[in-house]
Write a structure and sequence with these properties.
Elements lengths: L7 H14 L4 E6 L5 H10 L19 H4 L5 E8 L22 H4 L19 E2 L8 H20 L4 E4 L7 H7 L4 E2 L5 E2 L7 E8 L19 H5 L5 E3 L2 E2 L5 H7 L15 E3 L3 H4 L26 H5 L3 H8 L8 H17 L5 H10 L6 H15 L1
Parallel strand pairs: 3-10
Antiparallel strand pairs: 1-2, 2-7, 4-7, 5-6, 8-9
Helix pairs in contact: 12-13, 12-14
Amino acid sequence: MAHADLDLPGLAARIKDWGRDQGFDAVGIARASLADAEPRLAEWLAKGFHGEMHYMTLHGARRARPAELIPGTVTVIVGRMNYFPTAELPTDPTPPSEGRGPSSRSERGGTPSPNDPRSLLDDGRTAYIARYALGRDYHKVLRRRLQRLADRIEQEVGPFGYRVFTDTGPVMEKPLAQAAGLGWIGKHTNLIDKDAGSWFFLGELLTDLPLPPDAPHQADHCGSCTSCMEVCPTGAIVAPYQLDARRCISYLTIEHPGSIDPALRPLMGNRIYGCDDCQLFCPWNKFAVPAREPDFAPRHGLDAAQLLELFAWDEAEFLAKTEGTAIWRIGHARWLRNLAIALGNSLAKSVDPEAMLSALRARSDHPDPMVREHIAWALARRAG
């Protein structure tokens, strides 16, 4: 069927229905142009805020030009899928009063509980893993759903040109989602929706279908709030809407391949894979909606696992227990590096010191020099 013969507004409405049938909580359509985002991308790269993510520079301005990235692209279908893995979302995300810096569990009180991830932050025994990584790898989940959506469209219109993306290629997902009317980009640089917060994944279908685009989300509802900037443990949000990835714990624990700056290590607390502070204390997340997708349920108790338990995993156990999750890709050495920092921070607070010292010493001759360095730092932190 030729595109000119299609009822394009009707097709766009049906695509949104089919997207929701595939588990997406919202679907929007954007034009294949991000002219406003292009200069901001260039400025971010020029400042070196991408750190060692050298792939960010490979495609240049084409990241903001989907029609050049995938020739023939006319519109982009954007899907949003909630991922917060509990029915008990924090309802009062009030930031700590002292401003920037690790938030102590004692300030919030109570026993650490995965139902309130804030209670896990900087707990001396518990590891904090970003909530998005607790279940099945979102790349796999969203790619599969987007492919099914494309198949359903093809049943309706016949063969058409498309390409699936889910944080897997040089696509500026958040600006596209804003252009598709799915929310605004907050001061922490994450997408926010007034009715759903920010605990969601994004995925895209770049298509040659001339679908009518949705109205871009123009309003910014952050106002004078700076909660995300105040609670960022390492001060990575250097200005509103500007994130220096080189200071971001998510970058340090996942993307950064080598030694972590010793000046930043004490600020990382017990965050061993990613960091959620800017979302946990964002006031808009009191409206967040828990995930409907069973695949995002936590695996192997990682939503509140003990540091010593995870540090004891050998490489085979690490690979087995993280298989199918986003955590798997960092490898065992980075896993141990991150845990060594968390154990060093716990030792500084004298929480279960003997067991932690014993565990660190047992791995002090690890074959990877990066792991040995961070273990030595952790042991010295206790001595200091």
